[in-house]
Amino acid sequence: MDDTDRAVRDELARRLAVIEVEERETPRPPFPRGDMVVLVAMVVVSVVVGLIVGLA
Predict the structure, then answer these.
(1) pLDDT at position 2
(2) Domain limits of the chain?
(3) What's the Rg (C-alpha) of the chain?
(4) Cβ(29)–Cβ(36) under 8 Å?
(5) Are 1 and 9 in contact, with CB atoms under 8 Å apart?
(6) DSSP summary character for residue 26
(7) What is the distance between the alpha carbons of residues 5 and 2, in angstroms, rounded to a whole number?
(8) Rounded percentage of the chain residues whose pLDDT exceeds 90
(9) Cβ-contact 29, 39 below 8 angstroms
(10) Where are the beta strands (DSSP E) in the chain?
(11) What is the DSSP letter of 56?
């Protein structure tokens, strides 16, 4: 039983090390894409509303 536990522990450690390396090497944008789309849409709507109010 002890050999199995040791093998499972070693395999888990190996897999966690692989996941850590993959996470470090994967580039991530500073904002998630969904948040960036919402931010840009809010700015565009604000500018359009500002122009309409300014011209009225």
Answers:
(1) 60
(2) 3-55
(3) 25
(4) yes
(5) no
(6) S
(7) 5
(8) 46
(9) no
(10) none
(11) -
